[in-house]
Specification:
This protein has about 325 residues and is α/β, with parallel strands linked by helices. The protein folds into 2 domains: about 120 residues, NAD(P)-binding Rossmann-like Domain (Rossmann fold), CATH 3.40.50.720; about 180 residues, Rossmann fold (3-Layer(aba) Sandwich), CATH 3.40.50. The chain is built from 12 helices and 13 strands. The strands form 2 sheets. The chain has an 8-stranded mixed beta sheet, with helices on both faces. The protein has a 5-stranded parallel beta sheet with strand order 2-1-3-4-5.
């Protein structure tokens, strides 16, 4: 913490950004009080990491800290400008005394809106309506109701609870999956543990993945899980691509067992040209943007700025990550 540093010494902060980006908006309070360095390239990171007290990570496409970890001898705190921390953590960091924080909570409601929008798009068959409009075809047809549908939210943390809350407000029946089973509350009809996953999927007309990516969740949703879902059900992924066996998902969609999927995250991003998901009319593909609303960067910066002030005062930081479990705080409640 700041109180352990030499009196009068300015804190040294490194902001890790993609090569073509400038300083993220909203960090002015930090630049006024600390020595802040922007690191776009490996060469720039190598120059400054040795004296850095804090690393603020905005670039998740290139997990560079692990490569320069031996040089980060003064590092005390790593902040991830995201809710998920899978792209930040590695064994040496987990075993160290360096604190890791994230931006838990900022995108929860926006992601929930995406999920609700996807469910409504499926039940009202909006993709077909758009295709018919583009072809200039008038075709009346009946669509489904969303009220009364059963939704299983995989991940009962802050994002999952926001998803569940909106779905419940829209008249749906919501169940959750957590690290342990427990009774229902004002959001979930009930929460099942991992052992109850397949049984709960058998009740779900919509399954929504909101799980963090960990050793336990990688590949959690595969052929057996899709087979457990009722015929004609749909799957939504706003978690991480690798929690899903994508080949199994393609097969479940091709066979017609699943009626559709809305996918915002993928094993490989950007989704490669020629991938089957691009051509499937029953699949909604978005570019890892479910939570990104106008002004999200400033909102992310505000979380870091508040924690920086706490760091300078020697106070406990918000949103400290449980590194051993690779889970954001509050991922189970």
């Amino acid at each position: 913490m700041r109180s352990e540093q030499a009196a009068g010494a300015r804190t040294k902060v490194v902001v890790l950004v993609p090569e073509d980006e400038e300083m993220p908006p909203g960090l002015d309070p930090v630049t006024e009080l600390a020595d802040v360095h922007l690191a776009r390239t490996d060469a720039e990171l190598s120059e400054v990491i040795g004296e850095a007290d804090i690393l603020c990570v905005w670039d998740f496409r290139r997990p560079r800290l692990a490569r320069f970890w031996p040089e980060a001898s003064n590092l005390k705190w790593v902040h991830a400008s995201s809710a998920g921390v899978d792209a930040v953590l590695f064994d040496e960091l987990v075993r160290s005394d360096v604190l890791v924080t994230n931006t838990r909570g900022v995108l929860d409601d926006s992601i929930a809106e995406y999920v609700l929008g996807a469910i409504l798009a499926f039940t009202k068959d909006l993709p077909t309506s758009i295709r018919l409009q583009q072809k200039g075809k008038w075709r009346h047809r009946d669509t489904e109701r969303s009220a009364g549908r059963r939704v299983l939210v995989l991940g009962a943390g802050s994002i999952g609870r926001s998803v569940g809350r909106l779905c419940r407000c829209a008249g749906m029946v919501v169940e959750g999956l957590g690290s342990r089973s427990r009774p229902g509350d004002d959001v979930f009809e009930g929460v099942v543990g991992p052992d109850g996953l397949d049984e709960a999927l058998g009740r779900a007309e919509f399954a929504v993945a909101c799980l963090p990516l960990t050793a336990e969740t990688r590949g959690m949703i595969g052929a057996d899980q899709f087979a457990a879902m009722p015929p004609g059900s749909r799957f939504i992924n706003v978690a991480r691509g690798p929690v899903v066996d994508e080949d199994a998902l393609v097969r479940a969609l091709d066979s017609g067992h699943l009626a559709g999927a809305a996918l915002d995250v993928f094993v490989q991003e950007p989704l490669p040209a020629g991938h089957p998901f691009w051509e499937m009319e029953q699949v909604i593909v978005t570019a890892h943007q479910a939570g990104d609303f106008v002004g999200w960067e400033e909102a992310f910066s505000a979380v870091f700025v508040e924690n920086f002030r706490r760091f300078e005062r020697g106070e406990q930081l918000n949103n400290v990550v449980d590194k051993e479990r690779m889970l954001p705080p509050g991922s189970e409640s």
